[in-house]
């Protein structure tokens, strides 16, 4: 067992939840970030504690700079310096072609999916970087197959936000490689989570999954395995890399 400290943004549900649970199984202390669903976040914390692990639920909107700074202070004070960041919290809205996508919607998507990822990376780098006296660390950004496919007729605003996450991953990985920090990304495809209900089609994974080369959608736990591997010492020479978990598409 190690006592490394990990932050999983959006750790209350879906892919983040599966990742938080798996990290706890590996001995990490886990900060479980969420924005609204206190009950779901507390359930993750309770599940980790029931197995003898350590976890803390922290409410913070990752798109709000002051809230992100406050969250990192809570983690430093209560758990110690962070070793691992999983930038996972993300949003999308009702499926639509571009004609009905408002500036307000675009800005909300970018605020959470891009600005939020940048802010959490920034605060993590300040703690982890050997340039600032830190011990190094690892960051995994949860992007999406949508960054490659573009999500036409559904949510190209969301796809574009994930394109930005890919560029962030490449740029930051090069910027901090010499300071002991590895930065990688996973690009999940269709995964069974509640996110699809936000797009107006809760059953989307079942509808589209059959058309994938692997003829099914994926489970959050299958994504969590790749994230936890990228964070681990087993991936010690891996940075600036992308793992596609998309059933072959
Ligand atoms: P989900 O089930 O809808 O869960 C979203 C999580 O993000 C929740 O924990 C939610 O907190 C949190 N969250 C949302 N906005 C936030 C904010 N502003 N600040 C802090 N937390 C916030 O989503 P998911 O499907 O697991 O998706 C996780 C990541 O995987 C996202 O980045 C998504 O783009 C990516 N992804 C998902 C799929 C898929 O098919 N599901 C495919 C490719 C990529 P609350 O519980 O408090 O609401």
Textual characterization of the structure:
With 249 residues, the chain is α/β, with parallel strands linked by helices. It has a single domain, classed as Rossmann fold, CATH 3.40.50.720. 45% of the residues lie in helices and 15% in strands. It is built from nine helices and seven strands, in the order βαβαβαβαβααβαααβ. The chain has a seven-stranded parallel sheet with strand order 3-2-1-4-5-6-7, sandwiched between helices. It is globular, with a radius of gyration of 17 Å. The model has no long low-confidence stretch (mean pLDDT 98). The structure holds NADP nicotinamide-adenine-dinucleotide phosphate. NADP nicotinamide-adenine-dinucleotide phosphate binds next to α1, β2 and α4.
Kindly state the percentage of residues in helix.
Answer: 40-55%
* Number of DSSP-assigned strands: 7
CATH class: Alpha Beta
User: Counting H and I runs of at least 4 residues, what is the number of helices?
Assistant: 9
The major β-sheet equals:
7 strands, parallel
Rounded to an integer in angstroms, the radius of gyration calculated over CA atoms is 17 Å
Strand order of the largest sheet: 3-2-1-4-5-6-7
Strand content: 5-15%
| Shape by Cα distribution | globular
Which small-molecule species are bound to the chains here?
NADP nicotinamide-adenine-dinucleotide phosphate
CATH fold field value: Rossmann fold
Mean of residue pLDDT? Answer: 98
Structural class: alpha/beta
CATH homologous superfamily classification: NAD(P)-binding Rossmann-like Domain
* CATH architecture title: 3-Layer(aba) Sandwich
The structural domain count equals: 1
Give the end-to-end Cα distance, rounded to a whole number of Å.
36 Å
């Amino acid at each position: 067992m190690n006592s490394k400290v990990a932050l999983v943004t959006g750790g209350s549900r879906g892919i983040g939840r599966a990742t938080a649970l798996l990290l706890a199984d590996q001995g990490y202390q886990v900060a479980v970030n969420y924005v609204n669903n206190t009950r779901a976040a507390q359930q993750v914390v309770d599940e980790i504690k029931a197995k003898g692990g350590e976890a803390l639920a922290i409410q913070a909107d990752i798109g709000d700079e002051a809230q992100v700074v406050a969250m990192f202070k809570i983690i430093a004070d209560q758990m110690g310096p962070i070793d691992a960041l999983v930038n996972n919290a993300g949003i999308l809205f009702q499926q639509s072609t571009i004609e009905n996508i408002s500036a307000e919607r675009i800005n909300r998507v970018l605020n959470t999916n891009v600005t939020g990822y940048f802010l959490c990376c920034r605060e993590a780098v300040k703690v982890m970087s050997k340039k600032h006296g830190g011990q190094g660390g690892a960051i995994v950004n949860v992007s999406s197959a949508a960054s490659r496919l573009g999500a036409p007729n559904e949510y190209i605003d969301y796809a574009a936000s994930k394109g930005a996450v890919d560029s962030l991953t490449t740029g930051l990985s090069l910027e901090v490689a010499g300071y002991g920090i590895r930065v990688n990304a996973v690009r999940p495809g269709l995964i069974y989570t509640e996110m699809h209900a936000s797009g107006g089609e809760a059953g989307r994974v079942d509808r589209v999954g059959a058309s994938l080369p692997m003829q099914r959608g994926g489970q959050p736990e299958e994504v969590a395995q790749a994230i936890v591997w990228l964070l681990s010492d087993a991936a010690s020479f891996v940075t600036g890399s992308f793992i596609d978990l998309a059933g072959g598409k």
